[in-house]
């Protein structure tokens, strides 16, 4: 029977995706532990988050939380630790415990995390984004308001979906010029539209190797928009910081970036 796993573009939660190492002992620094754990455990799958902390209060050693997007990858990593197949130079063998971490809320991934996850499972050429609508809307003089609609396409699977973003900001903010507020608001609107589109995408991973894409058609956008809005279709995602956006420009692919954040922090 095939092993089928569903991965959504939301923050992974629950103990099935979490590996807890309660005791890491050795003559090493916190940075050495972090780098060693990242190199060792990223071999099992893409990491969402890696957190390393000192025990403190005069107790020697460190503890770590490692969260994967995939429960299957977490299980494989846990089994390798129990077999003592994973070792860190200068440290004693790891102990592993099950964490009581739980969560029921679906928290959308940050834009760069969505792209990191898509690139890992689909490849850099496995998806593309297009701006369908990006415009400053009428509002009161003290408010800058942008609405954007982004489209995601997955050519290999013949799938696509759209997401809408609406961002408002005070036209005059402390320490910022009027132009910078416009640029920031326009860029944030595009980012929110892209996150909304990714939230509808589902990765179906079979036996940890074969990946297909499905679209959650039951998920609605945060606000109503007309998908037939008549605007030119332009390949863009980002807005240059130095100028007021007049038309979208092409986005470069982000590099994977995993931060040593707190366990409950949304990257």
Essential attributes:
three-stranded antiparallel β-sheet, Enolase-like, domain 1, disordered C terminus, 21% helix, 267 residues, Alpha-Beta Plaits, globular, alpha+beta
Task: Give a description of the structure.
The protein is of the alpha+beta class. Helix content is 21%, strand content 29%. The protein has 4 helices and 9 strands; from the N terminus they run ββαββααβββαββ. The longest helix has 21 residues. It is globular and about 65 Å long. 31% of the residues are buried. The C terminus is likely disordered.
Highest CATH level, the class of the domain at 111-215:
Alpha Beta
CATH architecture of the domain at 111-215: 2-Layer Sandwich
Strand order of the largest sheet: 1-8-9
Shape: globular
Based on helices, strands and strand pairing, what is the structural class?
Answer: alpha+beta
Count, helices: 4
Measured as a percent range, the helix fraction is: 10-25%
Write down the Rg: 21 Å
How much of the sequence lies in strands comes to: 25-35%
In terms of topology, how is this protein built?
Layout lengths: L3 E5 L9 E7 L5 H12 L5 E10 L2 E10 L2 H12 L28 H12 L5 E9 L6 E12 L4 E12 L7 H21 L2 E6 L3 E6 L52
Antiparallel strand pairs: 1-8, 2-4, 3-4, 5-6, 6-7, 8-9
Provide a brief overview of the structure.
The protein has 267 residues and is an alpha+beta fold.
């Amino acid at each position: 029977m095939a092993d089928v796993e569903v991965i959504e573009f939301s923050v992974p939660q629950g103990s099935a995706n979490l590996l807890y190492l309660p005791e890491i002992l050795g003559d090493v620094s916190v940075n050495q532990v972090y780098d060693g754990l990242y190199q060792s455990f990223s071999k099992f799958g893409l990491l969402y988050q890696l957190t390393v902390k000192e025990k403190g209060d005069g107790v020697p050693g460190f503890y770590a939380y490692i969260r994967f997007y995939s429960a299957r990858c977490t299980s494989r990593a846990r089994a390798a630790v129990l077999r003592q197949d994973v070792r860190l130079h200068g440290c004693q063998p790891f102990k592993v415990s099950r964490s009581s971490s739980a969560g029921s809320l679906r928290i959308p991934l940050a834009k760069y995390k969505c792209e990191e996850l898509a690139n890992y499972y689909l490849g850099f050429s496995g998806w593309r984004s297009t701006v369908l609508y990006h415009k400053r809307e009428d509002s009161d003089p003290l408010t800058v308001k942008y609405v954007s609609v982004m489209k995601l396409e997955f050519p290999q699977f013949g799938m696509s979906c759209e997401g809408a973003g609406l961002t408002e900001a005070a036209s005059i903010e402390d320490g910022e010029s009027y132009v910078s507020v416009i640029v920031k608001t326009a860029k944030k609107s595009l980012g929110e539209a892209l996150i909304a589109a990714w939230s509808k995408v589902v990765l179906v991973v079979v036996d940890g190797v074969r990946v297909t894409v499905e679209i959650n058609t039951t998920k609605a956008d945060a606000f109503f928009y007309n998908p037939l809005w008549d605007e030119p279709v332009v390949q863009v995602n980002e807005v240059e910081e130095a100028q007021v956006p007049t038309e979208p420009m092409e986005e470069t692919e982000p590099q994977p970036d995993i931060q040593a954040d707190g366990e409950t922090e949304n990257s």
